[in-house]
Specification:
With about 325 residues, the protein is an alpha/beta fold. The protein is built from 15 helices and seven strands.
Length: about 325
C-alpha cells in the first residue's frame, strides 16, 4: 500500500527515464532500512506498468532460494502451470520474448553480513549468476533490485551509459517531514521539521516512528519532544539493531570510534588510533562496506568546502554510544 507515498518525484522521473528507453536491463535502489526503497519501487511499478506485458514483484525478505523464485515466476510468464524447466536459461528466454518488469525487494536478506559487503550467503550464489546474465545479455525486460547494499559484481557493471543503473536513496526534506507529521495529526513548523530531519537523517520510517512517540508520550507537543533531547526509541532501536548485527567486529569498532571522535574522524587518524591495529587494506574494506550500507558518510557529501571527515547521523551516534555503554557494563 503506497497510498501515503511522500514526494520522491525526482527519483521517480529518473527511474522512468532509465526504463523508458528500453536499454536499461538492471536497476538497483539502495539505502538505509526505512528510507523508502520498497515504497518507491511499488509506486514506480504502478506508474509504468502499461509499458510491460508482465509486472512481477517478489520479496526476498524470507531469503527464498532462487529455484523457488523461478518456479513461481516462470508459470506466470509462460502461462502454463505445467512448466518443468525452472532454470535461469528458461527465465532469460522469457525475458527476451516478452517485455517484463521484475522487482526483487529486500536483497540484503540473501547477502552475508561482515567485513565485505555484497557477498552472497552460502547456497545463494546462483543469484549472482542470474543478475550477471540479466545485466550482460540482450533482452527486452528490466529487473529492479532494492536493498541496503549492492550485491557483488553490481558496481562494476553500473554506469551512466551502461544497461545497469544504481540509485542511492537519501532522506526526505523538511517540507516532506511536515507532511508526514501532518498525516499523524501533528502541526510542525519548518524549523522544527529541520531539527527532526537533521537528527533522523530524513528517514521516512524514523519520522513516522518519531511522530507516534510525540503523540503518545508528549501529547502531540513537538517542541517538548525537541527540548527534552531527541532519543532513539524502541522501534527505531530495533531497526538499527538489525543493521548493526550484520556488521563485523571491526566495522562495529569503527562505528564506536567515529561516534566518540565526531570531529576530525579521518581514515588516517582512524588507522593510527584504532586498537588493536589493523592493516590498511582491512580498514579500507571495512570503511567501504560501512559507506555502502549507508551507515557512515563523508562530511564533504553535505558541504563541498568541508575537509574529508567521516560522520554518522545523530540518531546513529546516539544508538552506537548507547551500545558502547551497554558493552562496557557487561
Amino acid at each position: 500500500d503506497v497510498s501515503e507515498f511522500y514526494n520522491r518525484q525526482q527519483e521517480l522521473e529518473t527511474l522512468e527515464t532509465w526504463i523508458s528507453g528500453n536499454s536499461t536491463r538492471l536497476i538497483g535502489i539502495f539505502g538505509l532500512g526505512g528510507i523508502g526503497k520498497t515504497s518507491l519501487s511499488v509506486k514506480l511499478a504502478q506508474q509504468i506498468q502499461s509499458q510491460f506485458e508482465f509486472v512481477i514483484w517478489r520479496s526476498l525478505q524470507q531469503a527464498p532460494r532462487l529455484d523457488v523464485i523461478l518456479s513461481n515466476i516462470l508459470p506466470i510468464l509462460t502461462n502454463s502451470e505445467h512448466t518443468n524447466n525452472h532454470s535461469i536459461d528458461a527465465l532469460m528466454e522469457q525475458l527476451r520474448q516478452k517485455r517484463c518488469l521484475l522487482i526483487f525487494d529486500n536483497l540484503e536478506s540473501i547477502l552475508q553480513g561482515g567485513n565485505r559487503s555484497g557477498q552472497y550467503q552460502q547456497g545463494y550464489e546462483d543469484y549472482r549468476q542470474l543478475l550477471a546474465r540479466i545485466a550482460d545479455e540482450p533482452h527486452r525486460s528490466c529487473l529492479i533490485l532494492t536493498g541496503r547494499e549492492q550485491p557483488g559484481g553490481f558496481a562494476v557493471r553500473s554506469g551512466e551509459n551502461l544497461p545497469v543503473r544504481s540509485l542511492k536513496l537519501f532522506g526526505v526534506s523538511p517540507p516532506v517531514c511536515q507532511q508526514i507529521l501532518a498525516a499523524k495529526g501533528l502541526k510542525a513548523t519548518l524549523l522544527q521539521c529541520q531539527d527532526i530531519v537533521n537528527y533522523f537523517g530524513g528517514n521516512p520510517l524514523a519520522l513516522k516512528l518519531a511522530a507516534t512517540t510525540i503523540k503518545t508520550l508528549f501529547g502531540g507537543d513537538i517542541q517538548a519532544f525537541l527540548v527534552q533531547g531527541n532519543t532513539v526509541f524502541s522501534d527505531l532501536w530495533d531497526l538499527l539493531d538489525r543493521q548493526f548485527d550484520r556488521l563485523s567486529p571491526l566495522q562495529q569498532k569503527i562505528m564506536y570510534w567515529i561516534a566518540i571522535n565526531q570531529e576530525g574522524a579521518t581514515p588516517a587518524k582512524l588507522k593510527t588510533e584504532i586498537l588493536p591495529k589493523v592493516s590498511g587494506r582491512h580498514l579500507m574494506e571495512a570503511l567501504e562496506a560501512l559507506a555502502e550500507r549507508s551507515l557512515i558518510e563523508d562530511r564533504r557529501s553535505l558541504n563541498d568546502t568541508a575537509s574529508t571527515s567521516l560522520m554518522l547521523q545523530p540518531a546513529i551516534v546516539e544508538y552506537v554510544r548507547e551500545c558502547l555503554l551497554q558493552t562496557a557494563e557487561q
